[in-house]
Design goal:
5-stranded mixed β-sheet; mainly beta; 5-stranded antiparallel β-sheet
């Protein structure tokens, strides 16, 4: 009965959304939705992914409005987030910003400037994935919008320079003039609000002052995050190795993935691991996991989890203190930066669908 209630809410929201103008800031339509396998496929043209698996989400292009003029406040002024609310964080130069799920659930894309770097932050609430890349298409500045299409339940963006479609998880164009062009990726962190504000008390935080009338703070998809069998769009393949909606951390490399469970990091842990011939440091706790590529200059270091409600997240046997972005903020290597791994936090089913048979780390 509860699932039917949520489905009714989603269908009703779509009806209201589709009756209003998608570019009217006062419209309060619900993002996502549509029916399961009844979603129509996009117009036939050249796609690098199976076109029959590309579904119409029901909102239309820009029916979920991206944020073009984001408004921020300092972390110390934020009163609308609880400690366990999730945020997506980015750092460029001296500028540190956080984008709460509280807002992203309803907009999915923020086109921003981070210390002079034109940046597109994207978050897909149906797969739990957040990425950032340079706001460029065809080597030209471009903002990105929500196409209204989904692949394996995951967001497809489009660029406003060429109207090409981009897969969020694959981080490349999958249709249009720029097909197979890769996005220029940037590092993002996803963690809970308490960890973020304690680590970066001077961070800027995206506010709900978007110009749109949305019920910010209400999750748009009912039981979706917790009901492992509830899908609006069924992905393929489904892998039963873990519960579908379990939140996991994954290293991505050459079309393959290795998955780490948060349960292996409760209380803090630092793991040295290898994947496809590359050595990694994977460090975290129950709220945050990050990964870095080791090289000849760092492979001899012994790292330990060292977080105590400050910017320091881990340390090493040389006495260096590192933050979650891999910046040495104390010690003899002050100013150095570890090489970030290509990684993402997501729901398990998304990794299993995009990277079939991913490896699962076991101690």
């Amino acid at each position: 009965m509860k699932t039917l209630k949520y489905l009714f809410f989603i269908v009703l929201s779509f009806t209201l959304s589709n009756c209003s103008s998608s570019d009217n800031p006062s419209s309060g339509g619900n993002p996502g939705g549509g029916s399961d396998d009844d979603g129509s496929s996009p117009p036939t043209s050249t796609w690098s992914i199976p076109v029959n698996d590309v579904k119409d989400g029901g909102t239309g292009k820009d029916g979920i409005p991206s944020i073009e003029n984001p408004d921020f406040m300092t972390a110390s002024s934020v009163n609308f987030l609880s400690d366990n609310d999730l945020v997506v964080g980015i750092k460029n130069g001296d500028i540190i910003k956080a984008y709460p799920h509280y807002v992203l659930d309803w907009h999915e894309i923020v086109n921003d400037d981070v210390d002079g770097l034109k940046t597109t932050i994207s978050y897909c609430p149906l797969t739990g994935t957040a990425f950032a890349w340079k706001s460029k298409a065809n080597n030209t500045f471009s903002t990105f919008g929500v196409s209204g299409l989904l692949y394996n339940a995951n967001l497809i963006l489009y660029d406003r320079e060429t109207d090409s479609n981009w897969s969020q998880i694959l981080q490349k164009s999958v249709n249009g003039e720029l097909i197979n062009d890769a996005a220029e990726k940037l590092t993002v962190i996803e963690t809970n609000w308490k960890t973020w504000k304690d680590s970066f008390p001077n961070s800027l935080v995206l506010t709900a002052n978007t110009g749109f009338n949305k019920p910010y703070g209400d999750y748009p998809y009912g039981a979706y995050k917790t009901d492992h069998n509830f899908f609006l769009f069924v992905p393929s393949p489904i892998n039963p190795a873990l519960p579908n909606k379990q939140r996991v951390f994954s290293i991505l490399d050459n079309g393959e993935s290795k998955v780490y469970q948060f349960s292996d990091f409760i209380g803090g842990n630092a793991i040295r691991d290898s994947f496809l011939g590359t050595e990694y440091l994977v460090v975290g706790d129950e709220n945050l996991i990050v990964a870095f590529k080791m090289n000849n200059g760092t492979s001899n270091l012994n790292f330990i989890y060292d977080y105590e409600d400050s910017e320091i997240f881990f340390s090493d046997n040389e006495g260096n203190k590192w933050n979650m972005f891999g910046n040495a903020i104390e010690g003899p290597r002050l100013g150095q930066k570890l090489n970030s791994a290509q990684s993402v936090t997501s729901m398990w089913f998304a990794m299993a669908a995009f990277f079939p048979d991913p490896l699962i780390y076991t101690e």
